[in-house]
Design a protein that fits this description.
Two copies of one chain form a homodimer.
Chain A lengths: L23 E7 L6 E7 L2 E5 L1 E5 L10 H7 L4 E4 H6 L3 H7 L2 H5 L5 E4 L2 H6 L4 E3 L4 E4 L6 E4 L1 H11 L3 E3 L11 H21 L6 E6 L5 H12 L5 E4 L8 H14 L6 E3 L5 H9 L4 E3 L2 H7 L2 E4 L2 E4 L19 H5 L2 H10 L3 H26 L3 H11 L2 H4 L24
Helix pairs in contact in A: 3-6, 6-7, 7-8, 8-9, 10-15, 11-14, 13-14, 14-15
Chain lengths: 416, 416
């Protein structure tokens, strides 16, 4: 049985003594002509370069993938879901086995969200109060109350490197009064989360709310950045907002967050979404899209999305994406992947998940290189052009860059 | 894109020129006191030691596993299903891509069954005649006729190293007249299959039928072994017969098959089934059990089956099987596997498939070593004793060995 992974071993092989500052973030380069930054996150379980895309491992497993595969693909931080892990296997097991890194055998950094998203997504099934959110467990049917304190306690037991505050995430179309109320509750819960933290080696990020109101977003960012959080997330987007609203609020919020701390846009998005957010100064992302779409048979490629069950994919001794360096594209043909999906063979989703995640990780690495070279705006333009018009129509490259663009500005349509 | 695997490259690295005898079988050792043999199968895609368990890759994919994983686990021959591959992707694609080895990226030996089993398993959905079996394709609804000639043509296009004749597999409880008729048709179809073979580099095995009648089995073996087939399979078992009938017919049939050619027991079985059949002189097996049970959350272990969703599996920083050398047991705890299955996470079935296949492959390797040492009977006794009584009650060790057994003979009960 392999030994437990100790806190002193990091993915990069650096030996780090307990007590040494376990979490830090530094910006190494800022793009010339945009707000994009290249940085490094340091955690007790290793360093990660930003911009960083975090693979989603909801229940302590990146869907269908072995942690060694995730590492080989270029994975940095893995995200796990406190709400689900709370119900199964529960914080007690994590205390017993020495935390999630040992449990799932992922030796790198792990971020846990707080359960706040479920407050939104399971809104039909929970009761909300100033105390917290009461859910009915799908494991044993018992009522369970998730408070900011309980969330921090569970995340502490899980042993993630980065914890998130419990927030009240609300649909973007909510009326102004409700949006304000949810934001203010988020602020009170954020303070309670900060107070509840017992382990200083686990970083804690706050989550800016405020819907699609610029005024509320300013208020939220102002309140939270006055507190000693280790990083700040932009929450409450991709919950009914239009693409245009999402971009505007992302850009605005990122500008309001302190430059020396990591900025994390939660639950976003497609490759074009990521490129636009990086332009606006975002450092970290998580999204189920690469793995979810893989299980549905859709690949992200250098020229846009490919639905593998389409007839034309049955032909040809060609890889799925000729520009892709992943093991799926190196070893298997698109025709074989098509066959696997038509047959419902589980190897299909697995090979495609690896490809999609590699695609995302490679995008982040390329973005970073372009930022360091000071040419991120033109890199983003080139990348967006290469992607199927269907994918990127409607994306703007960010107002600050209008002057930077070479050539005519394409006519983008706003809207979802 | 990796280059096509040429016929001259084998798994063992031997260079084999086209035209050289591509298929052969040799017996290296016979157990002292039983009919068990240790041998080597040589094919155009590499050598395999026998006794050999063949992983089932029905639709050109060993369920959920990457071919490199199958190889790393100790896989030798992979079995693919002509009926399914006929309907999707079809023989034309295999001709275009240069065969199944290239398509699925399995460089080792491949055996294709003929579609004969589907004649039995889909008996409600096919029309049988002397010509062949008419099925309705589940891909496009078209009627398709599978004849011995068509089956050989499809297997030729698939490019398997070992082909099987089309046979009429019938339920064991069929009355004598129907069993005889099916056997005689199997004989005529076997001759037609032999005549239909165009590529001498693809071996062809015949299938002995005759239900649970010793007389018919003798007749079938006598007829088929008079023909120049490269190997002989025992078919028509595990189709309604009792465990006792299955063992008797296996023992009888194996004895009737020539010792210098491989003997293949189709569709069997559990570890005890394999041990008993090896005792009787069988060399090759295929069964979906290790992978099917893995997807249901059941593991084969050195002390019997373990249902991973059982409550006790939630506890303990222990491997699934302390005696197992597979990567699943080396890296993950039983508690984590339990968690994956309770959550429905697809990594669970995948890790368990690897464990179960490793278990089977290791069993074959251990059996072979015991045969070479001349001590297979006592090895089999020890192995059966270690497995949960529930698993092996009812298994006898074969009449020829009664005198070899040390210690009291356990009271086995006959029956299923």
């Amino acid at each position: 049985m392999a030994s437990k992974i100790s806190l002193s071993e990091t993915r990069t092989g650096e030996i780090r003594l307990p007590g040494e500052m376990p979490f830090s973030f530094s910006v190494e380069a800022v793009d010339r002509g945009s707000r994009a930054r290249a940085g490094t996150l340091v955690t007790p379980h290793g360093s990660v370069r930003t911009p960083a895309f975090m693979a989603v491992g909801t229940r302590a497993s990146v869907t269908g993938l072995d942690p060694e595969e995730v590492r080989d693909l270029g994975g940095g931080v893995v995200l796990a879901n406190t709400y689900h892990l709370w119900l199964r296997p529960g914080p007690e097991l994590f205390r017993r086995v020495g935390g999630i890194h040992n449990f799932m055998r992922w030796p790198g950094p792990i971020l846990t969200d707080s359960g706040g998203y479920q407050i939104f997504s399971l809104s039909e099934h929970r009761k909300l109060s100033e105390d917290g959110a009461e859910f009915k467990s799908y494991v044993d049917g018992q009522k369970q109350l998730l408070t900011p304190e309980r969330s921090i306690e569970i995340q502490t037991a899980i042993g993630s490197d980065i914890m998130m505050v419990l927030d009240e995430c609300i649909a973007s179309q909510s009326e102004a009064g409700a949006t304000r109320a949810a934001m203010e509750r988020t602020h009170r819960w954020a303070l309670r989360s900060l107070t509840a933290r017992t382990n200083p080696e686990q970083a804690l990020f706050a989550i800016v709310q405020g819907g699609v109101s610029a005024e509320l977003r300013r208020e939220s960012a102002s309140f939270l950045t006055a507190q000693p959080f280790d990083g700040f997330a932009i929450g409450g987007l991709s919950v009914g907002d239009t693409r245009s609203e999402r971009e505007d609020i992302t850009e605005l919020s990122a500008e309001l967050l302190p430059p020396q701390k990591p900025r994390y846009l939660m639950g976003v998005g497609t490759p074009p979404d990521l490129l636009c957010a990086i332009l606006a100064g975002v450092d970290m992302f998580d999204c189920v899209l690469p793995t979810h779409l893989a299980w549905q048979g859709t690949a992200f490629t250098s020229t846009g999305r490919v639905k593998l069950t389409r007839g034309y994919c049955a032909e040809g001794d060609v890889p799925l994406d000729a520009s892709c360096g992943c093991s799926t594209c190196a070893r298997f043909t698109r025709a074989y992947l098509h066959h696997l999906f038509k047959c419902g063979e589980p190897l299909g989703p697995r090979l495609l998940s690896k490809h999609n995640l590699f695609h995302y990780f490679a995008l982040m690495a390329e973005a970073r290189a372009a930022i360091v070279a000071g040419s991120f705006a033109s890199y983003a333009r080139q990348k967006l052009d290469a992607i199927d018009r269907h994918e990127h129509s409607g994306y703007r490259l960010g107002r600050p860059l209008a002057a930077e663009l070479q050539g005519p500005t394409p006519a983008f349509e706003d809207g979802p």
